[in-house]
């Protein structure tokens, strides 16, 4: 996936400035696709030049005008084409897994602190996802049919929640193995 597609999805959900897009990436999309502020602004400029996004100046009181981006018809077409292209399963590059295998040729117990650090990161991320789910997806939905956008956002979030739970289970297994190996030495 290219950053352009993630930006198009975000802008279709809600038009916004480059700064607002960067904040959305930090808050939700960024859990699955990361980008720096610089990358977002650079890609927005290219997308504007390609006719994928429209830009309008929004006057602000006491501050410089801001640029608000929205998806142009060419951008909608590009996203639609991408959505219809087949995509293969994603490959996982996992430095920690290689370190764990490599520890067989060193002191495996030296990795305990590193695995505990990773475990804490995944624990924090899971807590963040669960808090976001409680904040954004609990309570009455209101009258009318379910909103497809909300349902699809929620299913992606649930995937992130399950991924973090899987990682925590695996890291617990790794820690148990490392502690078992430590007791043999």
What does this molecule look like?
It is a single chain. The protein has 185 residues and is mainly alpha-helical. Helices cover 63% and strands 9% of the residues. It is built from seven helices and two strands; from the N terminus they run H-H-H-E-E-H-H-H-H. Strands 1-2 form a two-stranded antiparallel ribbon. Strand 1 (53-60) and strand 2 form a beta hairpin. Helix 6 (112-137) packs antiparallel against helix 7.
Q: How would you concisely characterize the structure shown here?
A:
This protein has 185 residues and is mainly alpha-helical.
- Rg on CA atoms, Å: 21 Å
Helix and strand sequence:
HHHEEHHHH
Q: How many helices in DSSP terms?
A: 7
Q: Alpha-carbon distance between the termini?
A: 46 Å
Compute the number of strand runs. Answer: 2
Shape: elongated
Domain Transcription regulator PadR N-terminal: 7-80
Domain Transcription regulator PadR C-terminal: 92-178
Pfam families: PadR, Vir_act_alpha_C
Protein name: PadR family transcriptional regulator
Topology of this structure?
Layout: H1 3-13, H2 18-27, H3 37-49, E1 53-60, E2 63-71, H4 73-84, H5 95-102, H6 112-137, H7 148-184
Antiparallel strand pairs: 1-2
Helix pairs in contact: 2-3, 6-7
Organism: Streptomyces halobius
Domain Transcription regulator PadR N-terminal: 7-80
Pfam families: PadR, Vir_act_alpha_C
Which characteristics define this entry?
mainly alpha; 9% strand; 185 residues; two-stranded antiparallel ribbon; WH-like_DNA-bd_sf; Tscrpt_reg_PadR_N; PadR family transcriptional regulator; single chain
